[in-house]
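During the second year of the project, the team shifted from modelling isolated chains to modelling whole assemblies. The rationale, set out in the original proposal, was that interfaces cannot be judged from single-chain predictions alone. As a representative example for this report, we include one of the complexes processed in the last quarter. Its constituent sequences, exactly as entered into the pipeline, are reproduced here:
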Amino acid sequence: MTAPAGSLLAAERLRKAYGPTLALDGAEFSIHPGEVVAVMGPSGSGKSTLLHCLAGIVTPDSGTITYDGRELSAMGDARRSALRRSEFGFVFQFGQLVPELTCVENVALPLRLNGTPRKEAERAALGWMERLEVDDLAKQRPGEVSGGQGQRVAVARALVTGPRVVFADEPTGALDSLNGERVMELLTEAARSTNAAVVLVTHEARVAAYSDREIVVRDGKSRDMERAL
Amino acid sequence: MSIGHTLLGLLESGPRHGYDLKRAFDEKFGHDRPLHYGQVYSTMSRLLKNGLVVVDGIEAGGGPERKRYAITDAGITDVAQWLATPEKPEPYLQSTLYTKVVLALLTHRDAADILDTQRSEHLRSMRILTDRKRKGDLADQLICDHALFHLEADLRWLELTAARLDKLREAVAAQ
Amino acid sequence: MNALQWTRDLAMGVRFALTGGREGWTRALLTAVGVGLGVALLLLTTAIPNALAVRHEREAARTDITFVDSAPLSRADDTLLVANVGTDFRDESVRGRELEPEGPRAPLPPGVAEFPAKGEMVVSPALKELLESDSGKLLRERLPDRIAGTIAEEGLIGSSELAFYRGADGLAAHLGSGRVTRIDHFGEADEREPLDPVLLLLVVVMLVVLLMPVAVFIATAVRFGGERRDRRLAALRLVGSDSRMTRRIAAGEAMAGAVLGLLFGAGFFLIGRQLAGHAEVWHVSVFPSYLDPSPALALLVAVTVPAAAVLVTLFALRGVVIEPLGVVRTARPARRRLWWRLLLPLGGLAMLYPMFGQGNDDGEFNQYLVVGGVVLLLVGVTALLPWLVERVVTRLGTGGVSWQLAVRRLQVSSGTSARTVNGIAVAVAGAIALQMLLAGVDGDYTKDTAYDVTRAQMQVSLPEDVPVTSAAAKFGRTKGVRGVDAYSEGYLGDRREDPERSTMLTVGDCAALREIATLPSCRDGDAFAVIGAEYDTDTEKLAAPGRTLYLDPSYEGGPKSKEIPWTVPEGVKEARPRIGPTGTEQMGFLVTPKALAATAGPALTGQIYLRLDESVPDVQDLVRNTAAAVDPLASPMTWSAVERNERFTAIRTALFAGAACVLALIGASLLVSQLEQLRERRKLLSSLVAFGTRRRTLGLSVLWQTAIPIGLGLLLASAVGVTLGAVLLRMTDTTVRVDWSGVLSMTGIGAAVVLVVTLLSLPPLLRLMRPDGLRTE
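Output from the structure prediction step:
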């Protein structure tokens, strides 16, 4: 099987083992620009590993990952890091904001890593915080804001570089349903408005309902529900 | 819930008498509502008429309870089709899903597949509801939420069942 | 609060510490090793005075040649003749004695079972080993006697002391030369020479300076693993312990670590003590048995360390609210106040002030005031540093990302980082002060010897009966000797007994004489009188040709001397004085060999000055070997341009080693807390890497995070250290001069510690940054 035409990010026959445990065993994936794809499956099924591979955080043992016509799995660490800095955005479940930096500094961080001057980076950060309705928290530190607000700050940070793919790993995992849905709404809206693709790892159906389609990972194998039907 | 498909599925493991069929059904699916014998009789005659089962033999003494039924190839295909078609997401369909899963296990089909298909169908509904909720007013949101929560409950059950398939397979095999 | 409750809670904490699974064990072990190292250092330090005292006693017990002219003993059956035949080998001294018992009851030196016969010797184990080794071959040539046995421990002052006793005869002839004595017992009444008050001040300050950081270190060590512990404490609160109970349980945990640490410390100490038996530091070695800390001090350590652990924990948890759902550090702690922090060093200065200008001459320093003042000044560092760090980091601007990460982290928890560097700051401050004091009083304790080492590098004094010319020839043939100036010297008086005027007679060839005086001309057979030499009042008056003078005149009360008459030759010429190689002007008569009657010979002793080719390996030892071959009592001496008070040198080196040890220890604790901090942030680090943060950026931020507080700490330490140094110098009445090299070297060591710690924490940092940290399962 080759990557479907027009896909932005696609993976084929991914295998990845952590020691004796096989986390991925021939998983497939593809996503188009502007698409939101939910990766579902029971815990331990390998969905996070799939996300890590797709984002170039870990290299699969075998299989290929193509991003925008380039083979991600063949790139060196430095190039993959640079890609993550500039073209990918990340939202995790928790523990991702640097506790000592203020919220606006946290949001500005990816821009600054790309060399944007501080003032400019923070101005852009503030813009995104406004869109996610957390601009009043700019000077607070992550420890001083609620979980839902923190996640919105994290979403702002994921989007601040104008990424083409946003990777979200259980972004609402630590939130109640109202806050979780608000975060999802803002994340998917913002992503759609910039035509960014979103890879959304979740085990919650109500979160997955914000996606356009879902794939199921079970025992390291993926199943694309749309194409299966 | 389709009793016809269920009885067909039970026949897949081998020909049975109508009375055996009722007992097997009650044991596996009819915990709180045992099947009335008349239902078995009428269902089997409908299946017979549609060519999904054939009468395998009649024991002396006559009477419908003495007929032995066997499934036809068309019957097997019909069961497979039924299992593969996701149920329309609506409240209280666990019993149908449960029946499908158990039947799949009994007939050595892929039960996880059934659950995945069903989840996908549920998610399709949930997406529509979520979309409506996004665009609607508060009343819409509340109405959609009600449906969403019910669907989510189904989905949780699906996940839980998926996680316990191995155990269920053992339990079904033991009976 | 009743004692029972306290005990119960503490005991529960101890149980937690010991049964907390692998993690609990690791933490307890880490604390124990940290505290153990501190305790071992404490015990060693407390044992040092005892070790020095034992050394001193041993030395006193074997004293033979006292140079004190008490009534000379006459030969008896309980007398012994002892000759000092000590020598040097490379840069080590070898204590050597020749023994000649004069009767059956002659006293045996301590540690020697039987007198060695002539041609035999008993040696210390270290010397035995040296003589039997390849590197000791040169020395073996000098000490060829058969080794008949070894000297036992009670006759030695250290495990690696080089010493021998050798059998001899005919020593009586040399009685009175200063190198041979007749004794009837070994040992002298213990008249301990009191330590010079300035040296005492140094030792006291040094102990304080070295022990303070150890205390700070122990205080840090009991807090290892603090953050995980906090979570455990929160869980305790959840199941219903109240906040005071929780604190006490935490204190109990710390105490368990500390007690375990005491055991480790005792172990480390015993190991260290054994190792000390093999080690030799600055030519000082000790036997393990010397290193016995006084029981009182050991008990004090055993009680204070766990008690301190409890107190430190309770104190540290002061600003922490332990809630059932987590630990809340009071969000914005009260701004640190300056005034009481300043009181400490000012108080210290006030305690030291009354002793300003007391110096060497005005008796002893009040030790309590000195200790109190120094302690307060140094504690002042630990009090001022958190304030300083807080003040500075809130003002630091934002630079690059790594800088921003580090600065922000410091702003949030400036206290933690200040605490970790406190130890380094105290150690450096103390060490700088001591360096300054040492450098300042250096002049007092380092004498310029007058020796002109460009003109001669060794001198050999010969006993009276050794003919100078043949000896000089032997030295001239020794490998590595470039030039020999040989002289025979004797004293002249105007009468046989109790002369009123006296001067010297020096015999040498023209070349040799030219070295010590300016001669108008010289041929063998000439004689000269040096007129106008320093301190010389008599030569001019005695230099009348034909006048009879007496060589080696007798003095009242002393034994009868040789009293050999010598006539001032006709035609004695006048010579001008010249500063000789010894740095003094030779006075008296200078005579070429032909102008001297043979009869004068016995009254003259030989002095030989040697110019050496120092590129010849072991040239000094070759010369010493020749000297030993010429006569066992010939005494070779190597000249050096300066001579240091040895005790002073030892203090200075001890300081360096001590400071280095303490800094290494603190570096270790820094590393541990650094690693712990990194582990805590594993998840965060992984997510930072996920969105593309360069490893370099994170590495640099770790560096900044240590470097900023340490930089500030070193700055403060330099300021306090220089102040304390200046105060100490004023106290000893020495000109205040900042010893910049000392400041630089100490701060340099401090900075090196930071660098090493950062480097060592990089591999685990890189490992933690791997994406595995993102896996939640």
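The longest strand of chain C covers residues 481-493. Chains C and B do not touch (no CB pair under 8 Å).
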